[in-house]
Amino acid sequence: MHSTERERLILESVAATGFVSYRSLEARLDASPATIRRDLTRLEEAGHILRVHGGAKLPEDDKPEGPEGLAGTPFEQSITQNLPAKQAIGRAAARLCRPGEGIMIDGGTTTLQMCPYLDGLDMQVLTNSLHIVHALLPQVGTRVLLPSGTVFREQNIVLAPAGEDSMPRFHAPKLFMGAAAVGPQGVMQQDVILVAAERRFMDRAEEVILMVDSSKFRSSSGAIVCGLDEVDTIVTDPGIPQEMADQLRDLGVKLVIG
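== DeoR family transcripitonal regulator ==
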């Protein structure tokens, strides 16, 4: 693919939402990471984009107008979907925690389900979810940390603008996160703002633990957060398709069935 064509596709991707991740560009373009970085440098020097942590965004004056919100199903609707499976996944994920350690929990209806099982472990938890904060506050021994940023009401999470580092100085052995979909291309979310936030969490974690019910393996559209090779453990339910389970094990991903 010629550089002119790559640059056109990059600009289309950025213009759609105001931000595009490196992972999404690698999946879309037939080019090496080094080539993509050179393309982004040229576009930045021409004033078309700004390179930021995890990807590229539009210059401030070119951001698309519209109401501030996130793509995807609102939290209050999603929380009722596949709830028994999510509760079992939450219980199984909590068993992976050790008393007194620090962990990160990304906002989501599945990750929320592990909170009741953390009581009594005296843990430190960094989360961007106000639902998770509310669930953990009654636990006297649990210390809760939040990043700074904007509250997105439909998901009740706190997210910083792309490229802005709002995270506390925090490093954790484990990151627990959800996803909109999981497929051969990798882990996906429905909004690029969520992609940038999850990449910031991943940069601070030693182990990435994905919590998804089996319905997430039957859909494979969205913005790519990471490849399957970047996931250490997936906690799911017995409904995971066998073909997907075999592929994950071949990649060295540990499967935990809740």
